[in-house]
UniProtKB/TrEMBL annotation:
Keywords: Membrane, Signal, Transmembrane, Transmembrane helix. This is Membrane protein. The keyword Signal applies. Residues 29-52 are annotated as: Disordered. Residues 1-20 form the signal peptide. The keyword NAD does not apply. It comes from the Bacteria.
Length: 480
């Protein structure tokens, strides 16, 4: 999910990483790589939450064999000695709340393992990636970005999110048996090996939070999935995305445009746990079998390590239909005024219409081409079957070229011919847009794009009307 926001952020709001835009980011020192310099690590990698600019996979850890690096042998089973050594361990689900930057709005999490016997205090983070990876941009655009997991000094991580980013940090101690703790530690240490740590990121189905969820589920023998899998939530991937990026107009619009019908499918509590804050809520209510067999709460206690001074996370997304409709009416009115004045022979108005209409159709055409490619030739599953293509399509590029010809000719006859052709294309675009708006409202067929069509319908109708042949007006004068 965050990857999608960051995908748009790369295009709309440039990435903020350890080296981008002059921003320096303090990355916690990895507890598993104490010999490396902190500066080298900060330049080499960015954690998913604050430093990243893309979040994009597809294989969940349904068990050890399907975990990261499935081609490699799975994690070893803990021995009796391992179980005995794990008895004094404490395991926490660390959840980091929302931040200021677009991709920080989705939260973050990690598995925190304290082992007094070993003297280690490690937070395992599945949200790592590196801009210097070979073909990073190509992988990013096609939905094939490689992420990895790594262990960090837990206290340094908490301090970073609290002091540097003013984000809430909550630690939930998990009620695990010694055997479950040993199994979890064996898994994360196996997963942290170079051969096993990489995975292909999917912003909804395989992200930092789902990896943490699956690791916990592995430790408790599938009890977490049995408890929350299939539990209805009344939410979808889109509904969570909308509420989490609400307030950022450009990103909100871009994500609404990019997501297709698959993002509107209802999701259960297991799937909803791709949002770290929702996983935190779900584990709080789960009861799992213990050594004695009696079900006990999965969470022993919850500690808020830092409470951020910021607005609370929205429970649901507000509706922006009226705002989008007003924006559409304003742009449409401008096109009508300039277009009809230009048709009456006012050269200044004609030039103004050409600029506004040309810019609009260029944006529509480029965005439509990107949507078409994303839904057909990439691994961005949730951008497929996108009804927005009816209104935002490559047809906009054709209309853009025809508009340039209509405005560019100085002689009346060719200007009128090209203007007529532009009017026909605009009429087709308007009809498709209205059709898309109708389909959007149909149950089981449409997708949640009402706000976008509230913007697009008045603009495309106005564009067509402005290009229609004028009656009872003076025809354009020849410049000769």
């Amino acid at each position: 999910m965050r990857a999608l926001a960051m995908a748009l952020a790369v295009a709309l709001v440039g990435p903020r990483t350890a080296s981008a835009q002059g921003t320096t980011v303090t990355v916690p020192v990895p507890a598993t790589q104490a010999g490396r310099g902190a500066g080298d690590r900060a330049d080499a990698a960015a954690d998913e939450d604050g430093r990243a600019s893309g979040r994009l996979t597809e294989a969940a850890l349904a068990g050890a064999a399907s975990a990261v690096g499935a081609a490699a042998p799975g994690p070893p089973e803990p021995t009796p000695a391992d179980v005995q050594a794990a008895a004094g361990m404490r395991v926490y689900l660390m959840t980091i709340g929302q931040g200021d930057v677009v991709w920080e709005r989705f939260g973050h999490n990690a598995l925190w393992i304290q082992d007094p016997a070993r003297g280690t205090d490690v937070a395992y983070n599945w949200g790592m990636f590196d801009f210097a990876q070979p073909n990073f941009l190509g992988r990013f655009l096609t939905g094939d970005t490689k992420y990895w997991m790594e262990g960090f000094d837990a206290r340094a991580m908490v301090d970073h999110y609290a002091r540097n980013e003013n984000r809430t940090v909550v630690a939930q101690e998990l009620n695990l048996t010694a055997e479950q703790k040993a199994r979890l530690r064996a898994y994360v240490e196996w997963n942290a090996r170079e051969a096993n740590k990489f995975y292909r990121y999917d912003y909804y189905r395989d992200n930092c939070s789902t990896r943490v969820r699956d690791a916990i589920d592995l430790a408790v023998g599938g009890a977490l999935r049995r408890a929350i899998g299939g539990a209805p939530t009344g939410t979808s991937y889109r509904s969570h995305t909308r509420r989490l990026v609400a307030g950022s107009a450009a990103t909100y619009t871009g994500i609404q445009l990019a997501l297709g019908r698959p993002a509107d499918a209802p999701i259960d509590a297991w799937e909803e746990s791709f949002v770290p804050m929702r996983l935190m809520e779900h584990v709080r209510r789960v009861r799992v079998p213990t050594a004695g067999g009696a079900p006990q709460p999965l969470v022993l206690r919850t500690d808020t390590l830092y409470a951020a001074r910021r607005e609370a996370e929205l429970a649901s997304a507000p509706s922006y239909v009226i705002g989008y409709a007003l924006a559409g009416l304003a742009i449409g009115a401008l096109l009508l005024v300039l277009g009809r004045a230009g048709a009456a022979g006012r050269r200044g108005a004609d030039a103004g219409f050409g600029v506004v209409a040309g810019l609009w159709t260029l944006i529509v055409g480029l965005a439509g081409t990107a949507l078409l490619l994303a839904g057909t030739v990439t691994k961005h599953v949730f951008m497929g079957r996108n009804g927005n293509l009816l209104a935002v399509s490559p047809l906009g590029l054709v209309l853009f070229i025809v508009l340039l010809l209509a405005v560019g000719y100085r002689q009346p006859a060719p200007r009128m011919r090209w203007r007529g052709r532009a009017a026909k294309l605009a009429a087709l675009l308007a009809v498709l847009t209205v059709l898309g708006a109708i389909i959007t409202l149909l149950p089981r067929v449409g997708q949640e794009s009402t706000e976008l069509f509230a913007l697009l319908v008045p603009v495309h109708l106005a564009l067509w009307w402005a290009l229609r042949p004028a009656t009872g007006v003076t025809r354009p004068r020849s410049a000769a």
